[in-house]
């Protein structure tokens, strides 16, 4: 590559990085400003960080909501990854005509807008509540169950499995591993980066999920973070400094998960795949 | 492999623990208990605060009734109610819910068996007349009227003076005069007269209600757009403001508030619930006043209107008797509560016996010593009663599009005829 | 595990090789891998989907529904709000998805360059938008693109535009704002997929290509694109689906306005169900229209990408 090209490359990447980071930076800055300055788009950090934080903690039950969101997101992520990777692996490794048809049908489920599934789904959980209140309406389990299996993730694992060296499966069998053993001992460790990407995406989606928890959760002590933020903005005299603070706090866990998982990307990229 | 199994086990245990704690606190099954009243409302500084006062008063005399107040955004309440009511399961729904008057008919009609008849729980004649049509259905009274959306013209008296006007010049004017004043104000101060959000036709709504007109016929279902003289004049006034270049655009609530808090606009014609937001900018104390809302120059139009406002509804269920009793004894008949609401949160109710009294006569220094509560209470009595009907927001979305067309040069008659045709097609 | 060079050459044909186990047993094992997923999706997607289909032949307000046959589907064709929403959604789709995919692909290739300095920094920066919540970024964009928001202030300061651009209230610029917002949020997200896939592409292939004198562009089109084909197909389908179901951004940034200039189909469904007097029947009809659209698009994309001959 010529020098000029390299310079352009760095300029381009720097610009892209700046555009990506700037709005987030502004969000963090705004969390330290008072309401009026936020709406004016003030660029400098202010002195209202402590005040915004205290106001936020006084107006909403932040900690229980964080706990609820964490419980939901963590269990959704673990179960999702397990179910979807098993399926993605199954569809690709044990490929058959019949399974391809089933797979295509599963993909259809990705396509219907959630807004139109909501009423039938709610009705379903309504009737579950009659017999099994522990997983019916207004429980954390009812938030997890419908979102834990997505065709999206199955599709993702299947497409990634297409790039998985399949002679490894054969090698595993020759070594005397059972079929499920091949999956856990060979596939899972090899596809570490795929799992990391999937974990980030699932966790994020679950953490930020709004529509379904909104309709299925009723009691205040079950509220998740996005629901609380929505309430904050509903006042006729909202405090935007406090809202920005809430948004920053709500974003932290997804950022942390991302940074934790990112290590695996980096490891992968340095060529550590044996 | 071992790691994986550990992870699996951990996740299963974790989930079990989660669902375990869920069932432990009973899954919020409020409907089994006829003495537990759950209430949904929005806005912590206004409705929720009012509820807390009512709760405190009521629980003193009725210690066996447990009242739980749940705060949700208004849009969220509408969505949860629609999902819950349409699914036919009463589980998870509250006993009392606050519904905006514009939406009330839509709920009452869509879910006829869901609401508790409140006719016997309070005296309808005690409330401002204009609140009754939106809150009743099929001859029965379902809603207990709450806050007044009575409107006023909030103005910056300092800007007015610079342009050579006094508050006296704003009494009893129509919208054309308002625009003329706006032009002078802009000339003298460089400030815009009004701030508007092109996606919100609240101004049109409050304009046509000064003439007792609405988007729909009195039956509440037939669109009345084509040939609606009041609507035509309102559109013309709206365009007049745009053409006179006295409008500062905004695109949401925060910018709307920021535009007058920063001193960029000279007047805000809107509901009285804006008072706390206006007063939030303490440095402008003494510079504001509230004039009567301008009217349309249609026969029978008055200098009083309404924007927003909501009422309490009881949903049928085990606790609906307790809920109706709570509402009847607090918002339905307690004048002291309304006095307290005015003093502590500036909420103006529509309960007539309470309008008077000390709290209403207090002078507000922020508004140059004006007795604004008393003025608002007076205007409330003049508001023309209307049946908002079923489809306010559906029609408004059509009107928003047609307003853009009108501003871009389409003729007013075409605009209203096209809107009528669209509304008829959509609402059959 | 010494599979380094074979990755690219292995096709699905290898699965036929182990017919040693009895076929029955292998089929059974295969199905048991996918079983949980199939059951879950049937319960939580297809069962409600069937109910929604039945709903789409009914109409009425709230619980007062009655069967109207195909009336709802006929109504679609004359519903001007719906047609505007379809038009808007197509504009988003045609402009935004290709721009985003190409940008994400391009960035991921640059970031995968071994000689690049501050790689981690760039990568992290570009991923960050994907980490923010929808509520957060909608609020931020609304303020940044406000009339006297930061974007206008900057543009005016550097005299890039003569007057402030009415980002949120002008029908054209409002669409631009939505497209910018989605691109900002999702480009890094798609890049995650490409980057994680690019590691599976063997660097020695590139080195060999370089020895043969292939230019960077040739490497990109001859090696990177074909190698990433499954994942490109995946992201373009999911992005298409995402765009056709576009809701949060429009709802939170412009509310569909000005007028209907930015309304999406999903937002119209939401309005029909929850903003207006609810007509769940008609809302279900509109959503089935999306399903049909997406099926058509997915078939086209599968065909174009030629997934069959892998």
TrEMBL record, chain A:
<dbReference type="GO" id="GO:0055085">
    <property type="term" value="P:transmembrane transport"/>
</dbReference>
<keyword id="KW-1133">Transmembrane helix</keyword>
<feature type="transmembrane region" description="Helical">
    <location>
        <begin position="240"/>
        <end position="261"/>
    </location>
</feature>
<feature type="domain" description="ABC transmembrane type-1">
    <location>
        <begin position="66"/>
        <end position="261"/>
    </location>
</feature>
<feature type="transmembrane region" description="Helical">
    <location>
        <begin position="101"/>
        <end position="122"/>
    </location>
</feature>
<protein>
    <submittedName>
        <fullName>Lactose ABC transporter permease</fullName>
    </submittedName>
</protein>
<feature type="transmembrane region" description="Helical">
    <location>
        <begin position="134"/>
        <end position="157"/>
    </location>
</feature>
<keyword id="KW-0812">Transmembrane</keyword>
<comment type="similarity">
    <text>Belongs to the binding-protein-dependent transport system permease family.</text>
</comment>
<dbReference type="Pfam" id="PF00528">
    <property type="entry name" value="BPD_transp_1"/>
</dbReference>
<dbReference type="InterPro" id="IPR000515">
    <property type="entry name" value="MetI-like"/>
</dbReference>
<dbReference type="GO" id="GO:0005886">
    <property type="term" value="C:plasma membrane"/>
</dbReference>
<dbReference type="InterPro" id="IPR035906">
    <property type="entry name" value="MetI-like_sf"/>
</dbReference>
<feature type="transmembrane region" description="Helical">
    <location>
        <begin position="7"/>
        <end position="29"/>
    </location>
</feature>
<feature type="transmembrane region" description="Helical">
    <location>
        <begin position="194"/>
        <end position="212"/>
    </location>
</feature>
TrEMBL record, chain B:
<dbReference type="Pfam" id="PF13416">
    <property type="entry name" value="SBP_bac_8"/>
</dbReference>
<dbReference type="InterPro" id="IPR050490">
    <property type="entry name" value="Bact_solute-bd_prot1"/>
</dbReference>
<dbReference type="InterPro" id="IPR006059">
    <property type="entry name" value="SBP"/>
</dbReference>
<keyword id="KW-0732">Signal</keyword>
<protein>
    <submittedName>
        <fullName>ABC transporter substrate-binding protein</fullName>
    </submittedName>
</protein>
<feature type="signal peptide">
    <location>
        <begin position="1"/>
        <end position="24"/>
    </location>
</feature>
TrEMBL record, chain C:
<feature type="transmembrane region" description="Helical">
    <location>
        <begin position="124"/>
        <end position="145"/>
    </location>
</feature>
<feature type="transmembrane region" description="Helical">
    <location>
        <begin position="28"/>
        <end position="47"/>
    </location>
</feature>
<keyword id="KW-1133">Transmembrane helix</keyword>
<dbReference type="InterPro" id="IPR051393">
    <property type="entry name" value="ABC_transporter_permease"/>
</dbReference>
<keyword id="KW-0812">Transmembrane</keyword>
<comment type="similarity">
    <text>Belongs to the binding-protein-dependent transport system permease family.</text>
</comment>
<dbReference type="GO" id="GO:0005886">
    <property type="term" value="C:plasma membrane"/>
</dbReference>
<protein>
    <submittedName>
        <fullName>Lactose ABC transporter membrane protein</fullName>
    </submittedName>
</protein>
<dbReference type="GO" id="GO:0055085">
    <property type="term" value="P:transmembrane transport"/>
</dbReference>
<feature type="transmembrane region" description="Helical">
    <location>
        <begin position="90"/>
        <end position="112"/>
    </location>
</feature>
<dbReference type="InterPro" id="IPR035906">
    <property type="entry name" value="MetI-like_sf"/>
</dbReference>
<keyword id="KW-0813">Transport</keyword>
<dbReference type="InterPro" id="IPR000515">
    <property type="entry name" value="MetI-like"/>
</dbReference>
<dbReference type="Pfam" id="PF00528">
    <property type="entry name" value="BPD_transp_1"/>
</dbReference>
<keyword id="KW-0472">Membrane</keyword>
